[in-house]
Design a protein that fits this description.
Layout lengths: L9 E3 L2 E2 L12 H11 L12 E2 L15 E4 L12 H13 L4 E6 L2 H8 L8 E6 L7 H7 L5 E6 L16 E5 L11 H14 L2 E6 L12 H4 L22
Parallel strand pairs: 1-4, 4-5, 5-6, 6-7, 7-8, 8-9
Antiparallel strand pairs: 2-3
């Protein structure tokens, strides 16, 4: 369950698999990993990238003794239409039973997330986020801002277009990152700076994750070589909850 994702400490995948929905899905890292796992004979990925529920994994967070930040469904989307609300209820039951952990749930299916929580309380130890990678999906922010989660966040990754003007009312945290893929699309510095400036003006914390496979100079390199500096500085602001701060 441990992970290299900088803004969390663990991942938990009670669901794997997904289907393409918007522009950010074109070079999906999770699909690439899942198909490789299937090829390698890993039991959990015997269905490849077909949406699959793994009920046997539900107990995993209970086995983590230390308070952790847990990214839910890094290899799927919990609110995919093929995941029944009844199964999501089971996931939420585990979340409620482990208040020592903080769960980060990120989705592209903002409307279905809103539908689910319209009749259910959001656990206090859940952060809700939506992916916003192109202007045409900014409506997801409106779905998110109206949900009474303890923390609401945006993941603008992979950022493949200029998002333009953003209304960040009731948004606590904004993550930005470039695409990591063989066929990666470039992310322009001015797009990132625009989001950073808007976040600062509207009181949201800003986290710049990485340039991805194409650097600020437009050159294709490894993600490590391209790094995460924005005009010579790093921006890794983390939001807080009442109990603790991530990595702090």
């Amino acid at each position: 369950m441990s992970t290299k994702i900088e803004w969390t400490t663990e991942t938990w995948n009670p669901v794997t698999g997904c289907t393409q929905l918007s522009a950010g899905c074109a070079n999906c890292y999770a699909k690439t990993i899942a198909l490789q796992m299937q090829k390698n004979g890993v039991r959990k990925y015997m269905n490849g990238f077909t949406v699959t529920m793994h009920e046997y994994t539900l107990n995993m967070p209970r086995l983590l003794r230390e308070p952790s930040f847990i990214f839910v469904c890094s290899m799927s989307d919990l609110f995919h239409k093929d995941v029944p609300f009844e199964f999501i209820d089971k996931v939420m039951a585990v979340i409620r039973s482990t208040p020592r952990h903080t769960y980060q749930i990120l989705t592209k299916r903002a409307e279905r997330m809103a539908e689910y929580f319209a009749t259910r309380a959001i656990p206090a130890n859940v952060w809700l986020g939506v992916t916003v990678e192109v202007p045409s999906v900014k409506y997801r922010i409106d779905c998110l801002r109206n949900l009474p989660a303890s923390i609401r966040f945006l993941s603008c990754e992979p950022l493949v277009e200029d998002l333009g003007e953003l209304d960040l009312t009731n948004i606590d945290w904004v993550i930005v990152g470039g695409e990591h893929a063989i066929n990666a699309r470039p992310m322009k510095e001015e797009w990132v700076l625009s989001i950073k400036e808007q976040a600062e003006k509207q009181g949201a914390l800003f986290f710049f994750k990485q340039w991805g496979s194409i650097g600020s100079d437009g050159v294709y390199r490894s993600v490590e070589r391209n790094g995460s500096e924005l005009q010579g500085k790093t921006y890794k602001a983390m939001t807080t909850v009442n109990r603790h701060t991530l990595f702090g």
